[in-house]
Amino acid sequence: MTEIVGFAAVVDGDTLRINGLPVRLFGMDSFEAHQRCVSAGRESTECGQQATIELGRLVAGREVRCTPRSADSYNRTVATCLVGSKDLAREMIRRGLAVALLQYSLDYLDVERSAREARSGAYAGTFETPSAYRAGRQAAQPSARAAILPSTQCQIRGNINNRGEQIYHLPTNRDWAKVRAEQLFCSEEDAIRAGFRPARN
After folding, report:
1. Of 10, 28, 56, 83, which residue has the fewest beta carbons closer than 10 angstroms?
2. What pairing do the DSSP bridges indicate for beta strands 21-25 and 15-18?
């Protein structure tokens, strides 16, 4: 596939439009446009809007070079995109405005861990992963629920304890109802790939 080069318009926190073509950034998932997160001070923040604004700042007035990797179900080109030497996906994750899509690539696992440790952006507080947020919105549509959602409906709760251990809790775990979810996962595989281990109860 041919490299896509040009100035970009921002659609949302992980999608650009270059020369009229929609381009989805590879290996990451940013907060949805209307998604809200919770700050360290327990205040609601518009993290979806913040992600869109930040991606706009990264590409403003600069040539973007994208190397296509595949296409997605929305007919967007999925690509690794650079501004100069900066990988846009890596920058968005580093700033705490996106998560790594570990089911597709481990390229950004290191930067996500660093962002979490530094409590950058949304990592300073708590948030649903974008996939969990989308699943929750789909759950509000009864006609689509059975066809789209897994039986857990993204109820696996990820928590970081006072020793810094990342632990995930299933609804069948004894303490699940008491756990403050810092991240939600739709599958155990997603939780493990994000660096969480299973609870021991």
Report:
1. 56
2. antiparallel
Residue 124 and residue 39 in contact, taking contact as beta carbons nearer than 8 Å: yes
* pLDDT more than 70, % of the chain: 92
The CA distance from 78 to 9, in Å, is 16
Q: For residues 68 and 1, give the distance between their C-alpha atoms in angstroms, rounded to a whole number.
A: 6
Retrieve residue 34's tokens.
């209307």
Percentage helix, strand, coil, to 5, in the chain?
Answer: 30, 30, 40
pLDDT at 149 over 50: no
Enumerate residues 6+ apart whose C-beta is below 8 A from 150.
Answer: 186, 187
Q: Are 58 and 64 in contact (CB under 8 A)?
A: no
Distances from the Cα of 183 to the Cα of 21, 61, 109, 180, angstroms: 33, 35, 16, 9
* pLDDT tens track for 77-105: 999 999 999 999 999 999 999 999 988 88
